[in-house]
């Protein structure tokens, strides 16, 4: 079943995961995209403000996007996103962490310029197995509405 705008009323949408993050993938992502010492070298990482090897925040964002896709975006009538409203990293993602993603619908409104679509604003929070909040994102997604619902289309 394809999810449309009407399937996203404000409130809790769901929890996705857990997803284990391995040391190997932390090192591989960092080597390719964010080769800072705290993401690549145990010794340097222990001297950093993170106090140990940690994944790049951009790696965490990539994992979060995959969790969102696998959890619901892949079966949503999504037309894309105009961007990210907020993104905060609160605590480091460590190799071996099992993470979950909680998704709430912060807002859902019909588009004024394109009434056949709606804008759903999601708030996502990633936590590790201990419940520590690692990251928070607020992002709108443009979602197609069901045909015939106040859009002037035949249903």
Structure, explained:
The chain is an alpha+beta fold and 155 residues long. The protein has a single domain (5-144), classed as Roll (Thiol Ester Dehydrase, Chain A), CATH 3.10.129.10. The protein is built from four helices and six strands. It has helices at 23-33, 37-40, 42-47, 57-71, and strands at residues 11-20, 78-80, 86-89, 98-110, 117-128, 133-144. Strands 1, 2, 3, 4, 5 and 6 form a six-stranded antiparallel beta sheet that branches. The two termini are 17 Å apart. The model is unreliable at 148-155 (pLDDT under 50).
Distance between the termini: 17 Å
Q: How much helicity do the residues have?
A: 10-25%
Highest-level CATH class: Alpha Beta
Return Rg in Å. 18 Å
User: What is the second-level CATH architecture?
Assistant: Roll
The number of helical elements comes to 4
* Topology, number of strands: 6
Mean pLDDT: 94
What is the fold's blueprint, element by element?
Layout lengths: L10 E10 L2 H11 L3 H4 L1 H6 L9 H15 L6 E3 L5 E4 L8 E13 L6 E12 L4 E12 L11
Antiparallel strand pairs: 1-4, 2-6, 3-6, 4-5, 5-6
Notable characteristics:
155 residues; alpha+beta; Thiol Ester Dehydrase, Chain A; 6-stranded antiparallel β-sheet; 6 strands; 23% helix; disordered C terminus
In short:
The chain contains 4 helices and 6 strands; from the N terminus they run E-H-H-H-H-E-E-E-E-E. With 155 residues, the protein is an alpha+beta fold.
